[in-house]
Design a protein that fits this description.
Layout: H1 7-27, H2 50-68, H3 72-79, H4 83-93, H5 98-132, H6 141-165
Length: about 170
Amino acid sequence: MKKAVNDSQKKLWIMAGIAAEEFVLTLLQHYPKFNLKIFQDRTLSKDVEANKLLLVWHAYLSTLVVSVSMDKMTLLQSTVMTEQNFLQSWCWVFEYTQEDMKLFDEALLPAFRHKGHVGLVQKLGQMIVENLYQDKHELTQEEMTILEEIVLKDVSGIIQYLRQAS
């Protein structure tokens, strides 16, 4: 964590990275952290390419950063960063490519601006389905609810830590 200049930054990067990794592994049915029985009705693509896994991983990280940014003052105070420095560091730490940043700017952020957190999670769900599963139909309401709960649980853990650190 060379980019981290204080413990809050370091722990934030670690918490977000682990949350995203555990989420993707759970989707792949390799790590049963979350109750994703509803996703078990979907069939994983036979050969999920590494770039598609990374896309979903970055999409989850982007969903976390947008969600955590709803408490921007706590985030910036705790990490002792400006908003621009925080976003640059986030992209550097998690090795965002131009494609990842494009998905953030052109898909996830507009979904959040248009429909709030629900729109953000819907877009995340769409990216998951398009990249990991054979059946491409939209998430059911039950799947959306579970996905929202997972995101909010990770976000609340991160925000709780940040509030204690600041």
